[in-house]
Design brief:
alpha/beta; TIM Barrel; about 35% helix
Length: about 300
Amino acid sequence: MIGVQSFGLSPVMAADLSGTLRKLAEIGFDFIEPMLTLETVHGGIPPYLTAIDQFPALAAQIQSHGLRLQSVHVEPSIRGRILSPEELSNGLRLLHQSFGLTEFVVSAKFSDEASARFWGKLLRDTARRLAGTPCRVLYHNHDSETRPVAKGQALVPAMDFFLEEAAGEVPLELDIGWAGMYADEVEIVKRYASSIRILHLKDFVAGSRGRYTCATSTKSCFAPAGTGEIQTEAVLQMRHALPLFSGNVVIDQNQSEQDLFEDLRVGFHTIRRLLEATDKPQHRSTHEFKSHVSF
């Protein structure tokens, strides 16, 4: 299924929620991946986050337009305080019990070994507290996690340390756009093939590699999914050899220089065409992927 991430949609959702959801359904999206905070409404919540006590109304609106809820981004802190595994797992369990959600995605933007291990352990311990339920805790990367850091005499992506600490208990919603900003996204998919649960599709115009971060990106650097310099088709072909892959891809149009909905429409139809074109697996195993990885 093809979904859409709500981050770039937050301005239009705030202005006209029903109209936005109607347009997304008309484009053909199967689901929307909203972004939540486990705190209740108060001043200062970023506009791209929905407070947990406002989520029932949002969920009802989403479903009333024929869109599904498959996965949800959850902010792992409240007012600058990082939640403990107990607090985070309790919130996720409540969301599962109330809405049937099972896939919870967290982002933290680490760039060194210590912070990578901190988040790997925190999310691993959160996942362990949810053992016995169908819930999964996933991690979504940005540009920093795939940048090289020292490991002995070698350079490896910071994500390596996160996954070592996570011990196979925290799969990835791999953002191939940000992964490709300072690394080769195809090689990153090969490297983490056994951990990828969801493919997060973001794209950039030609000449963007190595120029932007989450903090410095501009409207002009983003392209509709599958139309820019990210190797989206190659990645989608590889999905057949990802043992944890759920079948879900999420389009994330952070910003648009022109019309947001037109970029989403172009991205959706491009990705649907690429999925159809790469529907037959190439019969390459995860082991084969790993054996060809270099960094």
